[in-house]
Design a protein that fits this description.
The protein has 278 residues and is α+β, with helices and mostly antiparallel strands. 14% of the residues lie in helices and 26% in strands. It folds into two domains: 54 residues; 198 residues, Exo-inulinase, domain 1 (Jelly Rolls, Sandwich), CATH 2.60.120.560. The chain binds magnesium ion.
Length: 278
């Protein structure tokens, strides 16, 4: 991109900020600090050397940390692994989790998979999170039972409050803002990317926590994007408040909080869960 179009309309202070990271621009930054943008642009354009002009807009800091990506959905090197199935003993496999009602998580762990044991209650992470990237894989029962909301229902609650629905939505009609990958009762997924019963499915969730002011008033609502089996189904939508079954949601101030998985009386399974703190 030509230097002229990169700097068009940029205030002098902006150019100074950028120049601070380019040693050869310290002299230039001093020259343009106190002049209007148009004059600063003229000064940049007055630099005869093409490379030096281009360097004005090069940022060298902060240098992104090195992360080794995972393969096939496995955790990147900077992720916290919440469940990877590598430990098959029940207690070991759910070390990162606890029952919402207190005590150890009571879900079944076998063959690298954890499965809801109906009536044992929701489970949640022992750690608390705010802004995150979350990857998980889930599977509704191959043996199809029930219809609508009663078929392969579970859920991923960010901060224990904001549910991304887990449901067998393969040839299973229900209200659209309650199907798989909906932000429950708030946002219909853009498409239905569901696989059939018994197939492993992926969610990749990018979540920004709400911000609250000193008086408790929400000053920035939570927002979320979701990939379902690699397909974008929630595109940076605004969350209106905690998930409610009936009525309009309303924010109540809170701090960082666990990720919660729902026991909705269906034996839904999970594996390969990891999170990156943003
Ligand atoms: Mg649910």
């Amino acid at each position: 991109m030509p230097i002229s179009s990169r700097t068009t309309g940029a205030p002098g202070a902006f150019l100074v900020f950028r120049c601070l990271f380019v040693s050869r621009c310290f002299v230039l930054s001093g020259l343009i600090a106190a002049v209007p943008a148009s004059t600063a642009e003229n000064n940049v354009n007055n630099i005869k050397d093409f490379t030096e002009r281009a360097n004005v807009t090069n940022l060298w800091q902060p240098e992104p940390p090195i992360v080794t990506p995972g393969l096939d959905g496995r955790a990147p090197s900077d992720a916290i692994v919440l469940f990877d199935g590598s430990k098959t003993a029940p207690d070991d496999g759910l070390l990162e989790w606890e029952s919402v009602s207190g005590g150890p998580a009571k879900w079944q762990v076998a063959d690298g998979v954890m499965t809801v044991v109906p009536q044992t209650g929701d489970i949640r992470t022992k750690r608390e999170f705010s802004d995150i990237q979350l990857h998980l894989e889930w599977r509704s029962p191959r043996d199809v039972q029930g219809e609508g909301q009663s078929r392969g229902n579970s859920g991923v609650f960010l901060m224990e409050r904001y549910e991304v629905q887990v449901l067998d939505s393969f040839d299973n009609l229900t209200y659209a803002n309650g199907q798989a990958a909906s932000v429950y009762k708030q946002h219909i997924p853009l498409v239905n990317a569901s696989l059939g019963p018994g197939a492993w499915q992926t969610y990749d969730i990018f979540f920004t926590a709400p911000r609250f002011g000193d008086t408790g008033r929400v000053i920035q609502s939570a927002s979320i994007s979701v990939l379902h089996n690699g397909v974008l189904v929630q595109n940076h939508v605004t969350i209106q408040g905690p998930t409610t079954y009936i009525g309009a949601p309303s924010y109540v101030p809170h701090d960082a909080a666990p990720i919660r998985l729902q026991d909705h009386n269906n034996p839904v399974s999970f594996r390969n869960i990891w999170v990156r703190v943003l």
